[in-house]
Amino acid sequence: MSTSAFDLGVEAAVKTAAGRPVMRDYVRHSALNAGQAARDVRYLLNHPDADDVAEEGTARHRLESIKRRVPNLANNALYTALPPQWHHTPEELADMDKGTAREWFLSGYKPWKHKIKGDKS
Fold it and tell me: How many domains is the chain partitioned into structurally?
């Protein structure tokens, strides 16, 4: 696992009762969700499920894509801000140690291209 200078600075952050570094977990989790939100913005007008409703490239397809992307975008934006300790177990957060914040962002943005070694998701 590579460690960025930013991650090293965050390493000394306060730890939770479970012994996990709060800021490191927060930054990596937020990076993953920010990557997912960025993907939603990038593909706002093109959602694969909209293909069942209308032909790709049509106004109706774009509208259906927006209707399907906006809830995901809102969800990803919300979870970018929420502390991950509120909705993940210490074991789940420990999986975030497999990559840097940058790697998690890229994994959220283009999961088909950027894989984190050892990540099962």
Answer: 1
pTM for the predicted model, two decimal places = 0.79
Task: Please report whether residue 53 resides in a domain.
Answer: yes
Which tokens hold the place of 13? 């952050």
Q: Which of 110, 83, 106 is nearest to 27 (CA)?
A: 83
Q: What's the CA gap between 30 and 25, in Å, rounded?
A: 8
**pLDDT per position in the chain (121 positions), as tens?**
555 545 544 444 456 556 678 888 999 999 999 999 999 999 999 999 999 999 999 999 999 999 999 999 999 999 999 999 899 998 899 899 999 999 999 999 998 888 887 666 5
Residue 16 lies in a domain: no
DSSP state of 98: G
Rounded to the nearest 10°, the torsion over CA 105, 107, 113, 114 is 90
